[in-house]
Amino acid sequence: MNKMSKVVYDGKIDGEFEGFNDQVLFKMRNGTYWIQARYHYWYHYAYCPDAIITEENGSYILTVAGHSIPIRRITNVIESQIDGTFKGWTGETSYELRNGQVWQQSSYKYEYKYAYMPEALVYEANGGFKMCVVGITADVRRVK
Fold first, then answer.
1. CA gap 36, 26 in Å, rounded
2. Strand partners, 55
3. Alpha-carbon Rg of the chain, whole angstroms?
4. Residue 141 DSSP SS3
5. Which end of the chain is more exposed for a tag (fewer CB within 10 A), N or C?
6. Of 140, 108, 111, residue with least CA distance to 126
7. Among candidate residues 63, 62, 89, 86, the one with its CA nearest the CA of residue 74
8. From CA 144, how far away is CA 104, in angstroms rounded?
9. CA nearest 33: which of 129, 123, 134, 130?
């Protein structure tokens, strides 16, 4: 951290952390959400790891286990649950959430992961929406 850095959060990531990748969504224990602003891959698994967010010259930096990445804060994250079984993404997958909304996959991606009534997070990124369920994310559009 340089002299021009200001700590804006010193706490923990809420839940599982699997490192950095492409537009990874991070929820902090204080309820704020941040998204990775630049692609950088680094795998590191930890549960509720320590996290520091600093502001440097108008940009935000997340540091976990000595590794840092630019991030940006996002708001208006929809937190709900899949109403039933989640079996991953197959290309045109649709899921109804417990809040009554229905979201459908909007671009092709195949990734299998099974969970029953898992938490689902929907958020805006790069002019569209993404849904993250049990650590896997796909582009989605709301259909109901």
1. 8
2. 6, 60
3. 16
4. strand
5. C
6. 140
7. 62
8. 9
9. 123
